[in-house]
Amino acid sequence: MKNNLFLRLCALGTMLLFFLSGVANAAPLTIQINGTVTEPDGTPLIGCSIIEKGTTNGSLTNASGEYSITVKDENSVLVFNFIGFTSQEVLVGSQTNISVQLEPSASQLDDIVVLAYGTQKKSDLTGAVGTLKSKDFNKGIVVNPGQLLQGKVAGVNVSSVSGEPGASQDVIIRGVGSLRSGTTPLYVIDGFVLDNSSTGVATNPLNFINPQDIESINILKDASAAAIYGARAANGVVVITTKKGKSGKTEMNLSASTAISTLSNKIDVFSADEFKKQVVNAGGNLYNAGGSTDWQDELTRTAQSYTTHLSISGAASEKFSYFASLGLDNQEGILLNSNLKRYSGRLNLNQTGLNGRLNIAYNLTASQTENNRPDGGSMVVNMLQLNPTIPAYTNGSPSLIDDMLNPLTRQEIYKDNAVNNRIIANFSPSLKITDDLTYKLNVGLDRSSTDRIVQMLPYALLEGLDLGSLNSSLVKNDNNLIENTLTYNYQKSSHNLNFLAGHSYQKTFEHLRGFNLTGFASSGIEPIYQDQTSTQEQPTTLNTYAIKNELQSFFGRVNYGFEDKYLFTATMRADGSSKFGENNKYGYFPSFAAGWNISNEDFMTTSVFTNLKLRASWGLTGNQEIPSKITQANYVESKSGNDTYPLNPNANTLDDYPYGTIFTRLANPNIQWEVSRQSNIGIDFGILANKLTGTVDYFNKTSENILLEVVPADPIQPTATYWTNVPDMQIKNSGLELSLDYRSSSQRSFYYGIGGNITLMKNSVENSPYAVLTTGAAQGAGQTGATINGYINGESIGAFYMKEFVGIGDDGLNAYLDKNGDGQVLENDRYVVGTAIPNVLYAFTVNLGYKNFDLGLNFNGVSGNKIFNHTAMSIFNKGSLSSSFNTTAFAVEYPEEAISNSNEVSTRYLENGSYLRMNNATLSYNLSPEKLLSSNWIKGVQFSLTGQNLFVLTDYSGFDPEVNTGSSTGGIQTFGIDRFTYPKARTYMLGLNVSF
């Protein structure tokens, strides 16, 4: 309710800003100027500022680089400004069309990069930072920021857990560095540090952000860039900056799109005719219902999606700027009964005062995200396994199937709906105490609630489903932040010194309350709307938990530059966390970095390099993403005969015993922080007048003090498990990153650009005292708990550990390699047969432009990894086929295989996971203002056609090679296992963007 109210206020505020901007720009002006602003190669400059010199009158270029401005007279001067380019001034005179090309400033190194607690010129960076601006984002249906990044930054692997709308993603920056803490980086939005707490739904925690509100994303990859975030930076830091108002005339932008999505790849299961033959050939019991059904077609659909986004930005005066937006996204999933709908609003304000000494920034976003989720795993099983001779419908209704539920009926009676309401606000006033000293306060809050209802309507025709069920949960998340910083800037002749000192306090709270209830009337009314109370026959199950964490931090940073040639950066952060005991409450995380702008040396004046910089860094980051209060003892009461004894000698049963006390967790105040020790050396370069630019980085990252929940070696230990730091154990990641970009020479009618990046990775687990720490385990009848992959000493992270399948033996059963040669195949014949983590990441882009047409192509891929096809192991076997369940040719690959053969974990189901994907292709046409009938108020129109996931080159036999269960085993994240994963879609989208 609060969020809906806020969205209404956002709409009202937007209309008010329209009114104010109209008043502010109502002065009688006499000459209208139109034109375009481009780079030398013809690339449009989007958001370039055009100001009438000496006034606040101005305009911004649209998506086509076009602008329109009305000035006073022929003596007016237009000033063209864009970050990273040299400004130009043009006298209007008798001209009514003024088009300019802005030349890049010195190597475009004056670009401002948003970092931790401030900004820095790109030329002054000493750390490894990947920067992505809005014009470089991936196009198409994009629900969260991770999709914008895929394939764009070297060293960053972004993969979706599934194809479900709003599905969570794995964002891995420079490798997996922790066992229990996952791979999720720290996200910072407009200076506000997010908490990665659970919302109670397995969806992406960043779904609340409208990607169209994002101006830039910076990825802090090495310790020099990230260490100032200390205990939360071991997985890297993603800094997201949203759009702000700019000086000049008010601009309004309306974008809308509509899209259709279909199943991108079908698995080649048997048709009805093939199925009947194969069941008979296998010696099975054929159940022939007389139909011919493609269940993949029946349970998927052509999904329709649409988005609408309205924004307004500008400045009412030199002292006040604003950006406001409203958005609606509605994405249908390709599986029946799945979709995501999001309403979002944003308001960013900036006010200056006291002659420029006071600056107040205010950022507010509100969203409501609705998820309707199918019973995905069950639906995928039915798509692939259900007997194709069973008709999907009989007389227009889903057919009745003996002893099982028609999946078409299931999707009608199964409802899983989650609604997340979220508000994030931060208020950041800063005051220049002196010309060199600035104080800044940053106060922020994040309020989120997720109400999830999962219900099964009673179905009287099938025993076991006639009672129905209702599961309801409410998760509330609070995140409060207050930070104080002092920044001192000193500039004199050749010296440039910046000093930052600060204090931060952050408190998070997560609370879940839920219940489960069964026994509803079969009245056609959903259980949530039925009156129901707990009974002895149908008791209500209650569950609840709460998590509270606090983090207090002191931090500082020094940046020093001499003659714009020699650069030095040092940071220190001390974090005190409530997650750790008194003996190790604080962790300390320093970093050091140096840079040398070689291209600024006198001896480089005749060099082919227009930019050449050498960087080196070293530092420590930490990891505190562990369960709350694990350092404290916990116990429960028990009447077990092992935990208590009768005080009454006449006691005959446990009911006569008193309650005893048992520990579920022992206190351990000595648990220490996980620490990641990182070093980096890199080179930035530009040649051919910066037409060709690139970056090379080598990194080495070692994680130590690994936190793990282990089984005690002492058999009389009073708890089943306990938390500890594993002595000497290390997780190592190292690699080489290369990024290259080339832009063509200056040609007004045609331009082209190509770019790409590649990352070569190596990782290993060292000094582990455990033979195998299982990360992925099999599930299903006769399978549960069998190791698929894990952490193994001396091997890569996510190493697959299993027997090697060598064929079918004379007995018709699986035959495996006798690895140790002892004449028998046992568990000790398992060995490492590959890894789930790719050792090569690569991506490349092609951008072409001809007159008003633009074409962008994006490709990305991985190599060196394997995928365990758990889906095939579970259902694609001869035993299932003989029972009249459908399968693929995989099940009949060996004619001599017995029906009774078991489907054990082995290399039989291990496949090559390498792939090359055409991620998206966008063709756009920009309509010039002068071609519009209403060019005096419409600044530009862009039409676009985008295709997503157009093709994938891979040997993998499943739906898609970019898969993962998104689950964990023993709290350790799982990689590289495909088990009934929601399939990915191929999407075609039409878009319209209008600037006013």
Q: Structural class, from helix and strand content?
A: mainly beta
Shape: globular
Tell me the CATH topology of the largest domain: Maltoporin, Chain A
Number of helices: 9
Number of domains: 3
Low confidence ranges? 5-29
Assign the CATH class of the largest domain: Mainly Beta
The description of the largest β-sheet is: 22 strands, antiparallel, barrel
Strand count:
55
User: Based on the structure given, which CATH architecture of the largest domain is correct?
Assistant: Beta Barrel
Q: CATH H-level name of the largest domain... which superfamily?
A: TonB-dependent receptor, beta-barrel domain
Q: Average pLDDT, to the nearest integer?
A: 87
- How much β-strand is present in the residues? over 45%
Helix % is under 10%
User: If you compute it from the alpha carbons, what radius of gyration comes out, rounded to the nearest whole angstrom?
Assistant: 31 Å
Span from first to last CA? 32 Å
Structural account:
This protein is mainly beta and 996 residues long. It folds into three domains: 2-104, Carboxypeptidase-like, regulatory domain (Immunoglobulin-like, Sandwich); 112-242, TonB-dependent receptor, plug domain (Ferric Hydroxamate Uptake Protein, Chain A, domain 1, Beta Complex), CATH 2.170.130.10; 251-632 and 667-995, TonB-dependent receptor, beta-barrel domain (Maltoporin, Chain A), CATH 2.40.170. Helix content is 7%, strand content 48%. The chain has a 22-stranded antiparallel beta barrel. A five-stranded mixed beta sheet has the order 10-15-16-13-14. Strand 29 (566-577) and strand 30 form a beta hairpin. It starts with a helix and ends with a strand. The model is unreliable at 5-29 (pLDDT under 50).
